[in-house]
Amino acid sequence: MLSRIKEYALKHNVPIITDAGLLFLKEAILTYQVKDVLEIGTAVGYSALAMASYGCMVDTFERDEEMIGNALKHFDMYDDKKLITLIPFDALTYNKELRSYDLIFIDAAKAQYERFFEKYVKYLKEDGIVICDNLSFHNLTPDKVNRHTRQLLRKIDTFKNYLTMHPDFNTTFFNVGDGMSISQRKLK
Ligand SMILES: C[S@@+](CC[C@H](N)C(=O)[O-])C[C@H]1O[C@@H](n2cnc3c(N)ncnc32)[C@H](O)[C@@H]1O
User: Fold this and answer.
1) CA–centroid distance, residue 43 to ligand 1 (Å)
2) What is the CA(103)–ligand 1 centre distance, in A?
3) If exposure means fewest CB atoms within 10 Å of the residue's CB, which of 16, 38, 41, 118 is most exposed?
4) How many whole angstroms separate alpha carbon 46 and alpha carbon 159?
5) What residue numbers bound the domain in which 96 lies?
6) What pLDDT, in 10s, does the model give residues 71-115?
7) What is the pLDDT of residues 132-145, one digit of tens each?
8) Contact residues of ligand 1, CB 6 A cut-off
9) Does pTM top 0.85 for this prediction?
């Protein structure tokens, strides 16, 4: 159903969730009975539309003008658009209040994952989950990449460590798609 958007993304080199990642996301949505989603990183709307097609109400952040235009165009092609609210702002500087969510899906600038987590976790319902994508970064290793990518890999590692050591969350990492995690609040 969303194959046209997937084709568009592939053709224009827009990074979107992998098929395996999307299946994983769908299973998590069903398992945790997710209704309300906050997504950070809309791109051209592929994952937002997919989650809406599973019955979720999705608020989704995108800061890039061109992506915003394309995402809105794509949303218009589907009835599920009524379930999606695009927030056309940088998630790091956005300063309005949001509602609360069963799922926060972080799929944006990799170097900023800890900041996204810290900023938005207050909107997570008590029994909600945080899913992060791109934690394996194409399985690149530090010895085979340039300096910039090496720094990014280090940041991703630091973030994974941050999740692992988090006093309030239990996190499981999954070798699926481009590396995903699910974090859930620890029981008090
Ligand atoms: C990997 S793509 C998202 C893919 C999308 N979730 C999907 O699977 O269809 C990441 C997107 O996050 C956006 N982004 C990165 N940092 C952001 C920020 N601070 N605020 C809002 N959007 C951001 C980028 O412009 C890019 O379009």
Assistant:
1) 5
2) 16
3) 118
4) 25
5) 3-185
6) 999 999 999 999 999 999 999 999 999 999 999 999 999 999 999
7) 999 987 777 777 78
8) 15-17, 41, 43, 46-47, 61-64, 67, 90-92, 107-109, 112
9) yes
